[in-house]
Amino acid sequence: MQKIAIAVHGGAGTIDPSAMTAKMEAAYKNALSLAVRRGHGALSQGGSSLNAVETAVRVLEDSPLFNAGRGAVFNADGGHEMDAAVMQGNDLRAGAVAGVQNVKNPVSLARLVMERSGHVLLSGRGAFEFAHRCKLPLEDDAYFFDQFRYDQWQEVKGSEQVRLDHSAGEKKFGTVGAVALDVHGNLAAATSTGGMTNKRWGRIGDSPVIGAGTYANNETCAISCTGNGEAFLRAVAAHDVHALMAYKGLSLKEAVRVVVHEKLPPLDGEGGLIAVDRDGRVVLDFNCPGMYRAKIDEAGEEVAIFR
Fold first, then answer.
1. 270: domain range?
2. Which of 91, 203, 205, 208 has the maximum number of C-beta atoms within 10 A of its C-beta?
3. pLDDT tens-digit readout, 249-258
4. At residue 69, does pLDDT exceed 70?
5. Is 175 a catalytic residue?
């Protein structure tokens, strides 16, 4: 019988255990657990890996705890510009959006780009118009307001400084993502983010770029990344894991290790990624103190933040 497996992440970075209250840790873990269970529920009913990753990521987008959807950080103009991508491994079809505003669930818009637009990546106003045409739920700016995110922005507002979603000694990359293997043997990946606090000029990171922050291929694995987007873009990190497996014959665990611990650090690539291969093996790895993560596979459910 074909195995099923799913993993989610809610960001990675320098997370200080001493600054994490028991209440805060419980809130993060509960949100991660809800996301991975919802996604696994879709898989266990025979649903596609694409449905599973979209379902899981939507849960995280709807939570203000993570830098995606409702919890997206403020840009330099005091607005929210969100990026997201999905990819399915059976036919390498993919969809993505960048710099989109007022869309409640950017991951669902990314899926519609794949299924209905004839394109892979839409951005800005055009992506919003496509969302409106597809009748996706939209929200006004007040929906995306979060006091913690606002306070982060106030600390750097008016300067040229950007922040990778960190504040007062806690540096975390709040991008969210999911990877899954379904009962049909198909892999899928999804990633969603609000990007950098105080970002300017329409900056776009790795999350919506296929092969950089998001990738899936039934021959090897599905990947969703989180961290310093510029480094993951330059390393083409997600595709590199696939390539090391496809062309060098490395296992998923070893391919992830090479990318996360050897290729990314010289590029200032702090962060991590989640991955699942075609045999249902799940790897959750990072080169920083913590990564918000959860998985459900043959071994059961695991939810963790620190090592």
1. 5-306
2. 208
3. 999 999 999 9
4. yes
5. yes
